[in-house]
Design brief:
Length: about 110
């Protein structure tokens, strides 16, 4: 069901994969492959994909709150971690402090 006029693909699209789509052009996949977590993002409907590996295990879920700001729940050996992006998924970083990227509560 569309949320805020966007396609929400918060569902597993296969074993070890998750994704969120802002619209038909901006899509971010996350998952686990070759012993590492990764994000793959497109901003042009899939003509060009940008992929990065991350230091933690696989991406469990990914969610965007607009074109640029997104969060992901990522499995880690020390427990699940939250990762964030401020550039539409081109770069991701592990969030270590409450309030980073303006996230103070998942219920607000």
């Amino acid at each position: 069901m569309p949320v805020d006029n966007r396609i929400n693909l918060q569902e597993t699209v296969g074993p070890g994969w998750c994704c969120d789509a802002i619209d038909s052009k901006t899509i971010c996949f996350g998952g686990y492959r070759n012993g590492r977590g990764f994000f793959t993002t497109t901003h042009d409907g899939g003509a060009i994909w940008h992929e990065i590996s991350i230091s933690d295990n696989g991406v469990i879920n990914v969610s965007f709150l607009g074109d640029l700001r997104g969060w992901a729940l990522v499995g880690s050996y020390g427990g699940n971690m939250v990762w964030g992006t401020l550039d539409g998924g081109l770069n991701w970083s592990r969030l270590t402090q409450p309030g980073e990227m303006g996230l103070t509560s998942p219920f607000k």
